[in-house]
TrEMBL record:
Domain PKD: residue ranges: 1-47
Pfam families documented for this protein: CAP, PKD_4
Source taxon at top rank: Bacteria
Record organism: Deinococcus koreensis
Protein name (database record): Alkaline phosphatase
Length: 278
């Protein structure tokens, strides 16, 4: 449109805005009529358009809490909450509001809280008590896992025949957000005493951890392993397992990696790969 024209919007829920690109959030289920008007420099309406929007319910309201553990720090998130109000969830660590930024964490027992406001004005709390303890990692180990994973893709590893020679795939690029999700999973397993894609700490899934780390992908997958001593051992095991191999040889573009070592736990060493396609 000409530079001196403008667009005015009404969204059918009482909201309005102006500009060529706007955003509106519908907090209640129902049918709405969105209207746009194009006005010239003199304020005359040049054109009109409207669209019907059916907003479905996301189900009962609930607050969610995801805990992303890291080396000496933690990050909380209320992603995946279902709320029908513009009030933002409040995130607290040991009673202090921290938001979604990473905060330093001392060893010991802590309490994380997500405090959400429901549509009727009531407040709901989701509380999780967790323990932070020392563990170590290895950047060289993680780098070698990435190298071996990309080598398998480049050489066309066949998950059915367990041989190289198939179609070559481009290398995966390491993502800081996926690294954070992978570390949260490995650290959670090491500190929480479980081995599962669903976190025994907060009930989060691989997708929810990726969303909590700040990425919004179209698809996510996760490989986990425990007890293996070396990168070669863990990658070889994944390549010889149909489901894990499929993740490695799929059309993902990004990867996150984590190795956590915590002697005295059931497996000692914990490995995670997180894959994403944007």
């Amino acid at each position: 449109m000409p530079a001196d024209y403008r667009v005015e919007w009404t969204f059918g829920d009482g909201g309005a805005a102006s500009g060529p690109q706007v955003r509106n959030t519908y907090y209640r289920a129902g049918s709405y009529t969105m209207q746009a008007r194009l006005l010239d420099s003199g304020g005359r309406v040049v054109s009109r358009a409207e669209a019907k929007i059916d907003v479905k319910s996301g189900g009962p309201e609930r607050g969610a809490l995801t805990i992303l553990l890291g080396q000496g720090q933690v990050r909380l998130s209320a992603v995946d909450s279902v709320l029908y109000t513009p009030a933002a969830p409040r995130l607290l660590l040991d009673g202090q509001e921290v938001g979604e930024r990473p905060v330093s964490l001392n060893h010991g027992t802590h309490q994380a809280t997500a405090l959400v406001t429901l549509q009727d004005g009531r407040q709901q709390e989701r509380r999780i008590t967790f323990t932070a303890a020392p563990f170590s990692g290895s950047v060289p180990f993680e780098s070698e896992v990435l190298r071996l994973t990309n080598r398998a893709r480049a050489r066309g590893w066949n998950c059915a025949t367990l041989r190289e020679g198939g179609a070559s795939l481009p290398p995966l690029s390491q993502s800081a957000a996926l690294d954070a999700a992978a570390l949260a999973q490995s650290a959670g397993m090491a500190l929480g005493g479980y081995f599962d894609h669903v976190s025994g700490l907060d009930g989060s899934t691989p997708l929810r951890r990726v969303l909590a780390a700040g990425l919004k992908p179209r698809a996510v997958a996760e490989n986990i392993a425990a007890g293996q001593e070396t990168p070669a051992e863990v990658v070889d095991g994944w390549l010889r397992s149909p489901g894990h191999c499929k993740n490695i040889m799929s059309d993902f573009g990004l990867i996150g990696l984590s190795f956590v070592n915590r002697p005295g736990t059931p497996y000692g060493r914990y490995w995670t790969q997180v894959f994403a396609r944007l």
